[in-house]
Every structure is written in C-alpha cells, then in structure tokens.
Amino acid sequence: MESCDFLIIGAGIAGASVAFELAPHGRVIVLEREAVPGHHSTGRSAAVLTQNYGNSIIRRLTLATRPFLEHPPDGFTEYPLTAPRQMLWIAREDQKAGLEATLGEAQRLVPTIRAVEPAEAYTLCSALRSGYAAYAILEPHALDLDVHAIHQGFLRGLRNRGGTVVTNAEVVRFQQTDASWEVHTPDQQYAAAVVVNAAGAWCDVIGQLAGARPVGLVPKRRTAFTCHGPAGVSPEELAAWPVIIDSDEEFYFKPESGGILASPADETPMEPCDVFPDDYDVAVAIDRIQKATTLSIAHINRRWAGLRSFVPDKTPVVGMDSECAGFFWLAGQGGYGIQTSSAMGRTAASLIVNQHLPQDLTDMGLTPEDLAPIRVQAERD
Ligand SMILES: Cc1cc2nc3c(=O)[nH]c(=O)nc-3n(C[C@H](O)[C@H](O)[C@H](O)COP(=O)(O)OP(=O)(O)OC[C@H]3O[C@@H](n4cnc5c(N)ncnc54)[C@H](O)[C@@H]3O)c2cc1C
Question: Within this chain, do residues 188 and 91 fall inside the same structural domain, yes or no?
Fold first, then answer.
C-alpha cells in the first residue's frame, strides 16, 4: 500500500492543474488509466481562450486563468503558452437580434469586445461570403493556447515539487476507513486522506464507485478536423484570420499550422468512452462553412472527436462531497477546461487546504456555493 496526502484520479488538464497546486501542501500521487496523460479531452481541444464564452462563472474563471497562461511561473515552460488571436462571432440576418443581445454582457467583463460592421468583418477574413454576415462581434484579445505545453508544464511542475504520476493505473475500487480512503488499481493499492475526482467524462462513474451521489454529468461529443488553407490566400494572411464562429455555435474555424481547424460545434450526448468522429458531423461542418464562406473543403487532413462534459447548469463542480468525507469533486469542465485550468486548479487546492476560494476569485464575486457539488447532486432514492 502506497500512502500520500492527496490522491488524484485522472491526469488530464484538471488533474494536472490541481496536482501542481496541491504539491507544496503534501505528497501528491496522480493515477491515470491511460498510458499517456492527455489521451482524452485534454489532447483533443481547439486550443482557444475566449472571454466571451460560457456563463458568468466560466467567464470569471477564464479571466482568472489568463494572467497565469500569459506569465507562467519561472521554470513552468520553455515556450510561450499563448499567442494573439482575434475571435469574430458572425450572425446572418435571422440571427442578428440574438447576437446583438449578447454584446452588453460580453462588454461588462471585457470592454474591448465590440460590434463590427459586416464590411470590417470581411477585411478580417477575406473568405467570408459577401452578404452572409449581417452583424458581427469582435473579441480582439482572445488567445491561441499551446495546450500540450500548458499540460506538460503542470505535470513537470508537479514532479519538480515531489509529486508522482502513475500511468496505466485504472482506479477500480474504493474503500473508506475512519480517517482515509483506500483506492485500488489492478496492480496496486493507495491510501490517502483526500481523493480528488478529476476523471473527466468518467467523474460520475468514479463518484458512484466511491459511494457518492452523481452530479448528473453528461459527456457530449464534439468533432474537429483540419484541412488545407484556401488557394490564393497567403500563409501570412491566413495566419492573421480570427477564429470565425457562428453566433449560434453551428460551426467555427480558425487558422492552424498553415491550414484550417474546423468544427460543427456538435454536442451529442454519449456514455463516457474513447470517442471517435462521425463522418456525418464532418460533412455538416463542411456544408455550413461553405455556405458562410468561399472556402472549398475537398480534403480532410485529420479528424477527431472529444468529450465535453457538462452538468445541467454548465458550471464546473468543484468542492468536497457533503456526505463522503475526503472525496473532492473537480468535474464538469465542459468546453472550457483549458482556458479555466489555472483558476480551477487553484480553486480546488485552496478549497481542500483552506476551505475558501483564492482571493482573486472572491474579489470577482465567486463563492464556494457557486461551484459546490451539492447544488447538482441527485437526491438519494
Ligand atoms: C473538440 C473540442 C474542442 C475543445 N476546445 C476547447 C478550447 O478551445 N478551449 C478550452 O478551454 N477547452 C476546450 N475543450 C474542452 C477541454 O478539452 C476539456 O474541458 C478539458 O480537456 C477537460 O479536461 P479533464 O482533465 O477534465 O478531462 P480529460 O482530459 O478527459 O482527463 C480525464 C482523465 O481521467 C482519466 N480517467 C478516467 N477514469 C479513470 C479511472 N477509473 N482511473 C484512472 N484514470 C481515469 C482518463 O483516462 C483521462 O485521461 C474542447 C474539447 C473538445 C472535445
């Protein structure tokens, strides 16, 4: 039996960020079922940070993460974690009123977000089809993220702080004793006072193994693919295009490594699994993008899908279980787990160690109750 203070289940971005933050406070072990951390959602994202996305709690968690990603601590990374990227929401005439209505909320937290005339939208992305967009909103200071560098930075930082990541270690059973948890993998047993459930799409599976009430997590498949950039557009011009996103999130695309990354922004509910893309979703994205732009997508270079896991209020679940002492939830990162990673890791560690939120999040008006698991847990039968 190996003992530690904090045992974390899952080495995606959620598990890695909380492990990094907990390591100065005690011995941390992270158990990851796969051979390589990042195999699931964390390795499959679109790698964008936008402050005009999600509900007001997500927006504050994103604001509180941005400074860390732009100015990580010494030794965290050899490479920049972010790069400038604009983001442009476009609306057809029939979507215009809906997008206009979102501007006020967007500007409340980020005053630089502004409406742009369709003519300006075309100068930002020359592939937009003339007459398609009736209204647009520009976020000038969104960011591209280097997800691999962020994830590896947390994991390397954890190891430098004395923590351990064990791969090929699927948690299959829990046993609670008076003062601690015994956690079983097929090869080893671990004991810890605190278990952190950061198992992504499997958080409710892990919760139920531990005897906790489920939080109602629904994993939803999202598809993405890459293709060549358009003929006649220079690499420099393409690289400067914003992320173009439909105002009702029916598709998005952005420049990526000299080509284009695109998605139909699908949200198909699934059981937790190693998810694969469906050709139909790729075809839907191509159809929608070709209607909105002059892009002609004839060949897909790479396609993939990942799970974005939500509880009903689309707010993450971060907090100690009210019935299972020492069982801590870090779940429901949805489509925002990378751009909220630092705030989520700091919040989880602070709640575990001090029972309160980090000061920057308190100053933004967040309370532990906003994130607490009990708000979404089902009643016992
Ligand atoms: C197509 C797509 C685009 C996205 N774009 C963005 C974006 O632009 N910006 C952004 O911020 N977010 C984006 N996201 C969302 C983001 O990827 C997720 O919110 C985030 O990766 C979730 O991280 P996680 O650590 O919770 O889950 P995961 O990365 O899935 O990690 C959970 C880990 O737990 C492990 N595990 C599960 N069960 C067990 C067990 N029994 N024992 C041991 N280990 C276990 C799994 O193997 C897995 O590695 C996107 C997602 C998708 C799919």
Answer: no
